[in-house]
Structures are given as C-alpha cells and as structure tokens.
C-alpha cells in the first residue's frame, strides 16, 4: 500500500516495536503453501483491525487505503483462534502498566465513564414490574479500547406494594 495519512487508531511506533516480533514469529510458523508472502504489511493489517475496533464499522466498510476485509479479517480470526491476540494484548497491557508505574499512576483509573438512567417495560410474556437501573456505561482504556456494558436492577411489581 502507498503512504497514507495516519488514523488516530493506528498503532504508535513504540507499540509496533513491541508486537512486531510476535507477528513475525507467527507469520514464520504459518507460511503459505504457495510461498506467497502476503500483499499487505502486518502493521497495516494491525492498523485495519484497530480501526475497525475503534470505529465499530463493518469489516466490509474499512477505508480503501487500509487492507480489505478479506485480508484483515483472516488475520483477526486466526489470531483470535490461536491466542495470538491475547499475547499481543498482554504485551501492550504490561507496557501500559510499566509506564504508569514510572509516572505515579496505579493504572486503575478510567479516563472517563458515562452512564444514563433508563426505564424500560418488560418484554411481552414476562411477569413482574418494569426494569429500572443504569445502562450504557462505557469507558475508554488507556490502550484506546472502548469497553461497554449494561447494568440493571429489576423491580418486581410485588416488591412495590
């Protein structure tokens, strides 16, 4: 691929230097039967995976200046299935924890969280009252990964009497 403007989701040089040996070793263990080395650099594959993860776009809607879905998803699925993604995550997590130790952070703070109260009726056929609670809680980790979850409490009609 030709030079392109970097996306905010692109892997910094420092982190690429950390995971490149892992991906090079993986690629050496998974050589193509035909001997083909691949059309795209491993760094661009990682950048495409990070772009999809960060933006939430569909794989087929990756920008044209990143590797296509066929190449990107192949590596994503292979690394997910054999645990390479967890190995990479652990390397990056250790790097962040070490950096936090040097700068006096304990690494437990979340840069920001957002929550929103909500009330929703029960689904048809369910018994009890309405669902009350908090939903749409999200936080961005220091690696730039977005984490979301929903928590709710159920108030039964009998408990309100």
Strand order of the largest sheet: 1-2-3
**Which percent range describes the beta-strand content?**
15-25%
Name the structural class: alpha+beta
What share of the residues lie within helices?
25-40%
Total count of strands: 3
| Count of discrete domains | 2
Shape: globular
* Low-pLDDT segments, ≥5 res: 109-116, 118-123, 130-154, 156-161
- Largest β sheet strand count, sense and barrel closure: 3 strands, antiparallel
Instruction: Provide the residue-averaged pLDDT.
Output: 75
Oligomer: single chain
Order of helices and strands: HHHHEEE
Report the C-alpha radius of gyration, rounded.
Answer: 21 Å
What is the overall number of helices? 4
Domain Insertion element IS402-like: 11-89
Protein name: Transposase
Region (Disordered): 102-137
Pfam families: DUF4096
Structure characterization notes:
- The chain is of the alpha+beta class.
- The chain has four helices and three strands.
- It folds into two domains: 90 residues, no CATH class; 48 residues.
- A three-stranded antiparallel beta sheet has the order 1-2-3, with no helix packed on it.
- The longest helix has 19 residues.
- The radius of gyration is 21 Å and the shape is globular.
- It holds the Pfam family DUF4096.
- It comes from Streptomyces luteogriseus.
- This is Transposase.
């Amino acid at each position: 691929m030709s030079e392109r403007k970097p996306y905010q989701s692109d892997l910094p040089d420092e982190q690429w230097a950390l995971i490149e040996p892992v991906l090079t070793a993986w690629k050496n263990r998974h050589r193509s039967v035909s001997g083909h080395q691949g059309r795209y650099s491993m760094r661009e594959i990682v950048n495409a995976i990070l772009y999809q993860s960060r933006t939430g776009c569909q794989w087929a809607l990756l920008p044209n200046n990143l590797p296509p879905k066929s190449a990107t998803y192949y590596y994503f699925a292979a690394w997910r299935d054999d645990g390479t993604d967890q190995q990479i995550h652990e390397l990056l997590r250790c790097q962040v924890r070490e950096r936090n130790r040097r700068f006096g952070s304990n690494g437990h703070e979340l840069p920001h969280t957002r929550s929103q109260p909500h009330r929703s009726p029960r689904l048809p056929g369910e018994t009890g009252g309405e669902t009350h609670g908090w939903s749409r809680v999200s936080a961005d980790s220091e690696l730039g990964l977005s984490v979301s979850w929903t928590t709710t409490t159920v108030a039964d009609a009998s408990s309100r009497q």
